[in-house]
Specification:
By secondary structure, the protein is an alpha/beta fold. It has one domain: Rossmann fold, CATH 3.40.50. About 45% of the residues lie in helices and about 15% in strands. The protein has 7 helices and 7 strands, in the order H-E-H-E-H-E-E-H-E-H-E-H-E-H. Strands 4-3-2-1-5-6-7 form a 7-stranded parallel sheet, sandwiched between helices. Helix 2 runs parallel beside helix 3.
Length: about 210
């Protein structure tokens, strides 16, 4: 047990220390099955490139394939900071080649903390259970005020409007969430609008407990 706690603490410290070096960043999420040539791949690549060139933000992903690769590639090829927070899985994940800095995690929850804690905005493309898990994790943290209100931007209107419709007709109608909770995230495919949202988001300069981890 002590050995496991030591490993968890090490992963958390390394993850937060890495992100602390990049005062402005945007984290991308989405399906790792998305292939080069797919619209979402090209779109994420283009958006990430604009984020690093026009806003000078770092791009952070899980460091693997699909949308993660597309976003890292866009940032890397535009000459920006392209970070990968990878995870060790029983079925090995491929590491994409478009990373300027990377770190590997064994524990999912330490990786999730690092991916979700310090970014100025979160960009979600269509994905599976992993993407939806990360999406609901972040909007729950915002809803419960465990983290400040950070832009959550959902790209792929057809996909995300289907989810929003379910949340409105099934979850909100049963009063399991409030009407304002539907407004935590923004659905848009407009890159200019996305860049404006990111540019106007507060810079999250403080990681209060990173320096206290031994």
């Amino acid at each position: 047990m002590e050995e496991r706690l030591t490993e968890i603490t090490r992963e958390l410290k390394e993850g937060l220390e890495l992100l602390k070096d990049y005062s402005k960043s945007v984290t991308f999420f989405g399906a790792n099955q998305t292939k080069e040539g797919d619209f979402c791949y090209s779109d994420a690549q283009t958006l990430a490139g604009r984020i690093v060139t026009e806003l000078n933000y770092a791009v952070v992903t899980g460091g693997s394939s699909g949308i993660m690769e597309a976003a890292n590639r866009g940032a890397f090829e535009a000459g920006g900071n392209s970070l990968g927070l990878q995870i060790t899985l029983p079925k090995e994940q491929a590491t994409n080649k478009y990373l300027t800095k990377e770190i590997n995690f064994h524990h999912f929850y330490m990786r999730k903390v690092s991916l979700s804690y310090a970014a100025e905005a979160y960009v979600f493309y269509p994905g599976g259970y992993g993407t939806l898990d990360e999406f609901f994790e972040i909007i729950t943290l915002i809803q419960t005020k465990k983290i400040e209100r950070v832009p959550v931007i959902c790209v792929g209107t057809e996909y995300w409007n289907g989810l929003k419709n379910f949340l409105t007709t099934e979850v909100l109608s049963r009063k399991n969430i409030e009407a304002e909770d539907i407004e935590i995230f923004t659905i848009t495919d407009n890159h200019d609008e996305i860049l404006e949202i990111i540019k106007n988001a507060p810079i999250r300069v403080d990681i209060p407990f990173a320096n206290s981890i031994k």
